[in-house]
Design brief:
The complex is a heterodimer of chains A (about 140) and B (about 140). Chain A has about 140 residues and is α+β, with helices and mostly antiparallel strands. Chain A is built from three helices and five strands, in the order βαααββββ. In chain A, strands 1-3-4-5-2 form a five-stranded antiparallel β-sheet. Chain B has one domain: Hotdog Thioesterase (Thiol Ester Dehydrase, Chain A). The longest helix of chain B has 10 residues. Chain B is elongated, with a radius of gyration of 17 Å. Classes of the chains: A alpha+beta (about 140), B alpha+beta (about 140). At the A-B interface, helix 1, helix 3 and strand 2 of A face helix 2, helix 3 and strand 2 of B.
């Protein structure tokens, strides 16, 4: 399948952000912030009744979308994101992307993409740009 | 609150750095935690962020202190960039080095004064090859002028 400017990447959907997997990531990231795993702390801070997903997890969902589209994580060259809103446990999120440019560098064809992760009520949790090696496909 | 001169003086300050070994079992756990399916020969690219965070040689609390803040001040992630010069590999040990590269004071109508401080990190593999470069910025709300 060829790739062209304006192509929309296949959406990557997560129907329900797991509260339990945040606990794994708290250990991996060595992140002691209790808003990711302690509901009493979340309530105490007036942040509601659900844990707050780690920002890096939200970024990883976009990386997953890019890998599914490109055929593996090895094709990702660059990802830059700006964190804009929280994602909560049990939220549905969807990662989206659009090809905005194609260029050749060092004999490789690179696709520049606009990307975002959209959470509850259509709120953009993060947005940014990515560069993906699409050699042989564009 | 840091003076603007003190804030500007952060730029160029090196981070201690260190090492991060990308353990295959941790790659498996990260794939599972971020719903990425079954891991393969290439590690999840989120390890560009993770290896830098874990190997930068300074805790977040100490990093915040350099920026004149504490975790209680509510610092927030601003931006992140990962540039992969080669795929990250499970089992590899990466040398982490870096420095602060930006520090800027801003004022918003609703947010008041806040500072944005950025630092860049490099991941070098055991053969000495640059594998990844990352940039992170934190936003520090400043409650008084």
């Amino acid at each position: 399948m060829s790739i062209s400017v304006g192509d929309r990447l296949p959406e990557w959907l997560l129907p329900r952000v797991s509260r339990e997997k945040m606990k794994t990531m708290a250990l991996v990231l060595d992140d002691p912030n209790p808003i990711h795993w302690d509901l009493a702390a979340v309530r105490g801070l007036g942040m509601g009744e659900r844990p707050i997903n780690q920002g890096p997890n939200n970024m990883a969902y976009v990386m997953n979308m890019l890998a599914d589209w490109a055929g593996g994580h090895e094709h990702l060259r660059r990802l830059r994101v700006r964190f804009q809103a929280n994602v909560l446990g049990d939220d549905e999120v969807v990662a989206r992307g659009t090809v905005v440019a194609l260029r050749v560098e060092g004999g490789r064809t690179l696709a520049e993409c606009d990307v975002e992760l959209v959470g509850a009520a259509g709120a953009v949790a993060l947005s940014g740009t990515a560069t993906v090696d699409v050699s042989g496909r564009a | 609150m840091l003076t603007e001169e003190d804030l500007a003086a952060i730029v160029g300050r090196p981070l201690p750095g260190g090492e991060y070994t990308l353990q295959p079992y941790v790659d498996w756990l990260v794939h599972d935690a971020v719903e990425a399916g079954v891991p393969g020969e290439v590690a999840h690219p989120l390890f560009g962020f993770i290896a830098g965070l874990r190997g930068k040689g300074i805790s977040l609390d100490d990093l915040f202190e350099i920026c004149g803040a504490t975790a209680a001040d509510g610092p927030m992630f601003g931006e992140h960039e990962t540039e992969l010069h080669q795929p990250l590999r499970p089992g590899e040990t990466y040398r982490v080095s870096g420095e602060f590269v930006s520090a800027e004071r801003k004022q918003g109508k609703k947010t008041g004064i806040f500072d944005i401080v950025g630092f860049r990190l490099r991941l070098t593999d055991s053969a000495g090859t640059l594998a990844a470069t990352t940039f992170n910025s934190f936003v520090f709300p400043r409650r008084s002028a």
